[in-house]
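ok so I'm stuck.
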Amino acid sequence: MTWIKTISLADADEKLRNAVEGERMLYPREYAEPVHPGLSDAATIVGSHTLIPDALFHAFGTFGALMSPELPLTRAQHEMIATMVSVTNRCRY
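replied:
not stuck anymore, here's the structure
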């Protein structure tokens, strides 16, 4: 749960809806189903960026572009790199 003001998709204006929908279109299809479907859109890391739709799109759109299946790395290689970065940075998630 975020402790900052967030905007749910139900309350989003057109600019925010377009930013969220645009960045989601860049993600691999495996990301189409939410991991925690009971959470509201505003209670996620993406939700914490809803006050600045342009930043939301560019920050999460970058991830979507980097995970493109058209790139030479496989999905498994992407996940291995992400895991090693998390371990190196001592991330718990």
